[in-house]
Each structure stands twice: as C-alpha cells, then as structure tokens.
Amino acid sequence: MTEQTTILIQPKRAVAAKIESPRRRAIRRFLRHRLALVGLATIAIIVVLAIIGSEQAAYQQNLRMGWTNQPPGTTFVVDNPDGTVSTVVFPLGTDALGRDVLARVLVGGRVSLLVALISVFVSTIIGVVVGVFSGYAGGKTDATMMRFVDVALSFPVILLLLVVSALVGPGLITLIVMIGVVTWAQGARIIRGQVLAMRGAAYIEAARVIGVSGFRMVRSHVLPNIVAPIVVLATFGVATVVIFEAGLSYLGLGVQPPTPSWGNMVNAAKSITVLERYPWQWVPPALFIVAMVMAVNFVGDGLRDAFDMRATSDR
Fold first, then answer.
1. Is residue 254 exposed (0-12), middle (13-18) or buried (19+ Cβ within 10 Å)?
2. Do 39 and 295 touch, CB atoms closer than 8 A?
3. Which CATH class is domain 22-63+100-307?
4. What is the pLDDT of residues 182-223, one digit of tens each?
5. At how many degrees (to 10) do helices 34-52 and 283-307 cross?
6. Where are the domains of the chain?
7. pLDDT tens readout for residues 48-69
8. Confidence band of 25 (pLDDT split at 50, 70, 90)
9. Best CA proximity match to 221, nearest among 232, 212, 231, 211
10. CB 275: neighbour CB atoms within 10 A?
C-alpha cells in the first residue's frame, strides 16, 4: 500500500517542480539572448562613462597657443603657479576652442541619455493613458480618440519636431517636452490594441460580473497584464529619441552650446574643414550614437522575445 501511494504522488511532485512563473521564464529567455546581453553590457558601459565624465574639462576653454584642434593623444606640460609641473593629456584631441573632446563626448552622452529617458517616460505615460482609456471605454469614445491618434500619426514626426522647435525655440527643456509630447501616438495605438484583445478575457468578464469598478479593473487587471509591451515599447523608444535628439541638435534646434550633446558635437561636421581635417571632433560622438542605438535595439529584441508567450522554444 505504501509503495502504491508513493507511485501515485511522485509524478505530481515532478510536474509541480517543472512549473515556472512567467517572470522567471522571461528572465531565462532574456539571459539566453546573446545579442541582448551584449547590448545590455554596452549600455551599462556607456552609462558609466557618461556618469564619470568631467564637466569642468568639457566646458573649459584652452585658447592657448597650440592647444586648439589638436589630434588624439596630444600631451602638454603645464607650469603651475606653485612651481610644480603637470602633464595634460587629450586622448581624443581638442576642438576649435581647445576643449577636451573625450570629456565633451562623455558629458554629451549624459545629456543625450537624459533627454532620451525623460522624453520616453513622458511619451509612454501619455500613450498608456490614451491607449488604456480608449481601449477599455470602447464605442464612440474609442472611435473619437483613435481619430485624434490617426491625425497625430499622419504627420512625419521629425518634420513636426522641426516645426515645433522652430516656433518655440531650441533648448534642453523644450527638447525634452517637445519629443515626449510629439511621439506618444504610436505607443497609444499599440497599447489600445493590447487592451482590446484583453477585454474579452474570462477573468475580465468575471471581474465585471461581480461589480469591480472601472478604475480598479484597469489598475488590478489591465495594467499588470500590459507591462511587457509597455517595457518593450519604451525600450525601442529610447533608441528612436536618441536619433531624434541627434538630428535636431545637428540642425541647431536641439541642445544648445556650450552644453555638449552627441548631436551638437556632430554638428561640427557641417564645416568642410572639420569634416576633412579634424575627424576626431565628430567621429567619436557619431560612433557613440551608433553604439547606443544598436545596443538599445538588441535589448529591445531580447525583451520582445522574452515576453512572447506564444514562443514554443527557447533560444
């Protein structure tokens, strides 16, 4: 009798041991995505470099004879007022004002990432509010709100950013708010689609039958189940905003000098002299833009695959 009981219970324990929560399954899938891990490591390195960048070196103008437009690796010996001698090294050279290009690239990365993160946060909040409200309300409310979204999507984003920036005026705060307000429509449509697909679920109908209020329904049942698409959407949004910031700053409508950003540093390449004779002044920020966008896209691909519940096999 004891042996028979053991035989019946053991398979149940084995099945229970194999049960895995969606969160752990998503983490395991993400950790198996090699490109996503490479992208995550690249982002971490860029963020650390941006944090340790020296603002004093990025803003300090060294208009001494022979200190401007120096190539990478240039070293100068300085006589200090106290009689000591110090050595100044510029690993990535100097610009037309004698400023350290490396320091400006690092501090510029801090500014560009700040613009991207805050803009994406603003854009995501607006998109989630509009998408959830439209999808959950349905009917005429949904149709009316989606027409506004269609109008917003009918304008090319970069063109709309250029027009608004030209009307309002360039600046860091203006750039952040402007990008956040202009880029919400695509996210709203995606979130609305997720909510519409969720409205017919059994647990939503059950909660509605027992009298759960609309606010509580959204807070307790809708939002927790759309966290995955929101995270993926925000991740890809960061890469897009980095490009938008670089483009606007390159055109002189974004972050304004002397505050460095990757975009306005690449702006130096508009001069034929700088483009041909001083490539170290614009190539490093351009490479950082490429590396950051690729890394964020890799992470976004990894998150999308990790949260895909329809996947039948792991990477």
1. buried
2. yes
3. mainly alpha
4. 889 989 999 998 888 887 777 777 877 887 777 788 888 888
5. 140
6. 22-63+100-307
7. 999 999 999 899 998 887 889 9
8. confident
9. 212
10. 13
